[in-house]
Amino acid sequence: MKSLVFDLDGTLADTSRDLICAANSCFINQGIEPPLDHERDKLIAFNGGKAMLKLGYNRIQGSAPESLIDKQYQNLLDHYESALDIYTTLYDRVQETLEEMKTHGWILGVCTNKPEKLALKLLESLGIMGQFEALTGADTYPFRKPDPRALTCTIEKMGGTNDKAILVGDSKTDLNTGRAADIPVFLVGFDQQGKNSFKLEPDEIFLSYEDFPKQIAEFTKGW
């Protein structure tokens, strides 16, 4: 079976503002003026909660011990779980594209570094969880992206095979995961993260989900 494995944050949905709100809440609860900005820090949000906290502490006090970041990370997750879909939206035509790819014989899955419970809750809220055969998160296995096993185990869970699979993402982590697994990588070329995609030189870059099915069909001729 032909398999498409999607990253979540920055690939299927713009989750940045809700993530930054969760990180800022950790500082607000300490009586600190929130150091992160929704627009300026959009890209760091897609790198995960600890990256946001580290950036915030760097701006406030120059640095912070890992123990403090680890402690605040759980507070961030707690806040995010209670408000993960306030501002988050799917990128244009995601729903329609997922449906179209399934009609062309593709099976779909999600491999994200977001905790599995939170990823499941968000995809259900966005109304697209039913499109996917499998979902794996940061805590599904003892390993996570860029470990290639995160991707290959997702493909196996979907019922697919590595020789007919593509990873769809938005970051260097996604690219490194695909390269390590010897699986082609499509990266988004839209929104702010698109600027980095061209520098990373993935197998393909797609500028919109409207273009995505045609690019996949051309790339996989002969599969």
Task: Give a brief description.
The protein is α/β, with parallel strands linked by helices and 223 residues long. It is built from 10 helices and 8 strands.
List the helices and strands and how they pair.
Layout: E1 2-6, E2 13-14, H1 16-28, H2 42-45, H3 49-61, H4 66-82, E3 89-90, H5 94-103, E4 106-111, H6 116-126, E5 134-136, H7 148-158, E6 165-169, H8 172-181, E7 185-188, H9 194-200, E8 204-206, H10 212-219
Parallel strand pairs: 1-4, 1-6, 4-5, 6-7, 7-8
Antiparallel strand pairs: 2-3
Strands of the widest sheet, in order across it, are 5-4-1-6-7-8
Distance between the termini: 10 Å
The secondary structure category is alpha/beta
**Major sheet description:** 6 strands, parallel
Order of helices and strands: EEHHHHEHEHEHEHEHEH
Oligomer: single chain
Describe the protein's architecture and organization:
47% of the residues lie in helices and 13% in strands. With 223 residues, the chain is α/β, with parallel strands linked by helices. The strands form 2 sheets. It has a 6-stranded parallel beta sheet with strand order 5-4-1-6-7-8, sandwiched between helices. Strand 4, helix 6 and strand 5 (134-136) form a beta-alpha-beta unit. Helix 1 (16-28) crosses helix 3, helix 3 (49-61) crosses helix 4 (66-82) and helix 7 crosses helix 8. It is elongated. The N and C termini lie close together (10 Å). The mean pLDDT is 96.
